[in-house]
Amino acid sequence: MLIAVDIGNTDIVLGFLEGTKIIASYRMTTLLSHTSDEYGLMLSEFLQMSNYADSDVDDVIISSVVPNVMHSFRAAIIKFFGVDPIVVGPGIKTGINIRLDDPRSLGADCLCDCVGAFGLYGGPLLVLDFGTATTYNYVDAKGTITAGLITVGIRSGAAALSNKTAQLPEVEITRPKSVFATDTKTAMQAGLFYNFLGGVERTIVQFQREVGESFKVVATGGFGRIIEGETDSIDVYDPNLIFKGMRMIYDKNISR
């Protein structure tokens, strides 16, 4: 059994994979203060919840955009499961080319998303990841990442509103019932939702204008669930895309 770990700025998401099948997934908050023992115990508890034991873990692959968490998390994997995890980063085989000014600047999560999307759906395609930040990466027909765009995520936008304004509260990120809001909370929810949705659709249109050819739009990330049924601009929403990409990367690199 392979554990795929996506360490993001807000959450750490785990996927338990048997072959290409995702048996279970779990989410925990990313905290720099957690020790390796704490991470190891949480992993063991998630395994038990899925009727696995620590000894069932054959290998681990990690994608991380939070370097300060890596030492504790990697140490937990080694201590609790006896394996040195594969880490997605420079030098790893992916089957994807990166034609950016600085290829190392591409987040490991975006790279895994693109590998999964291209492997499953072919190219050309635009890969969207709705997380703490919202990212767009264009993959051409040959499997080369040729452009990327990064903007604020919907949760980050909501946090900015409540943190920078004295009278606006924190609100749940949700699909509003109507744009006709009658109180502060629903006004914020509707504003965040429709502004975010409109921005996504307009950005996709701009990619279409500049690319000059049709492409598939594949989306992933937790906040994609909020809008994927509200727009015709997204062809596929795959919440487990990163795990599928990590499985493909693992298979290209495994020699142990």
Automatic annotation (TrEMBL):
Pfam families assigned: Pan_kinase (PF03309)
UniProt key word Zinc: no
Catalytic function, reaction form: (R)-pantothenate + ATP = (R)-4'-phosphopantothenate + ADP + H(+)
Cofactor list: NH4(+); K(+)
Major enzyme class: transferase
Major localization class: cytoplasm
GO cellular component: cytoplasm
InterPro entries, per the entry: ATPase_NBD (IPR043129), Type_III_PanK (IPR004619)
UniProt xrefs under PANTHER family: TYPE III PANTOTHENATE KINASE
Assembly and binders: Homodimer.
Protein name: Type III pantothenate kinase
Organism: Bifidobacterium aquikefiri
